[in-house]
Amino acid sequence: MARQPNSHINAAITLALFLGPIVYLSRKHRLLAEERRKYREEREVERAFLSALVEDEGSQPLRPPLPEIVRRVLSRCRFSYLSTVDVDSHSSHLSLMRFTYLPQEETIVMSTNVRTKKYDMLERGNTGVALLIHDFSEVEPPAGEDSGASNLTGEYSITLNGRCSVVKDVVLAEKYRAAHLKNNPDYPQFIVGEDIAILLVDVVSARICNINDEVTKW
User: Fold this and answer.
1) How far apart are CA 164 and CA 171, in angstroms?
2) Residue 141, SS3?
3) Is residue 129 within 8 Å of residue 84, measured between CB atoms?
4) Exposed (0-12), middle (13-18) or buried (19+): which is 216, by Cβ within 10 Å?
5) Listed residue (66, 34, 18, 27) closest to 218, CA to CA
6) Alpha helices per DSSP H over the chain
7) Tens digits of per-residue pLDDT, 83-140?
8) How far apart are CA 23 and CA 27, in angstroms?
């Protein structure tokens, strides 16, 4: 009889060890399901908003501040195609760039080696640029989410027009460099270094196009 309390304790421990993983997995499943639901709802709201923009034939060109949902999409994306003016060739120069959008400043941050053609053209005063940004491959669903959920926002591209400048102030350059590196931690070779300049694009106008070739601008 003296061993009975110990047997009860052992039984309780055994039950806890058995039920513990089940409870943990059940809770994890519920949390993941809630994340998926919120994710889908957010994407549906974005999709409806952006669809309304491209379908509004009477929309007039607008200037920043950009709509909140557009800012949210820009904050998620990382890749862009930067077009700079090549006066000598009466053409343009296209570069694949990683960027960081700072919604609080309505600013696009990029970096480039000072020995590049685009840097030379910017330094010569050809500051008018265009940026093509899309969410087709940059948007990732939460862990465990099926790839189909990301298609909710895989329908739009955003073209930004603006003025691009090289940040000469050392303090400001390091501030933006830190933000850019935080947003692109796997690519320090393109962001950090004595020969790497920081670029800022002040957005002047923007245009959205969807996969049906419907367009709006603001």
Assistant:
1) 18
2) coil
3) yes
4) buried
5) 66
6) 4-55, 68-76, 117-123, 170-183
7) 999 888 888 999 999 999 999 888 999 999 999 999 999 999 999 999 999 876 544 4
8) 6
Query: 199-215 pLDDT, tens per residue?
Result: 999 999 888 877 666 66
Alpha carbons 112 and 85: distance in angstroms, whole number: 16
In this structure, what token pair is assigned to residue 113? Answer: 């080696």
Question: Could you give the angle at which helices 68-76 and 4-55 cross, rounded to 10 degrees?
Answer: 120
CA-CA distance, 174 to 182, in Å (whole number)?
Answer: 12
Distance (Å, rounded) from C-alpha 84 to C-alpha 181? 23
CA separation for the pair 162, 150 (Å, rounded)? 29
What 3-state class would DSSP assign to 56?
Answer: coil
Q: What amino acid occupies position 169?
A: D
DSSP secondary structure code for residue 2 in this structure: T
* Per-residue model confidence (pLDDT) at position 9: 76
Q: In terms of Cα–Cα distance, which of 88, 82, 90, 115 is closest to 200?
A: 82
Rounded mean pLDDT of 184-195? 95
pLDDT in tens, 19-33: 777 777 778 888 888
Give yes or no for a contact between 157 and 116, defined as CB atoms under 8 angstroms apart. no
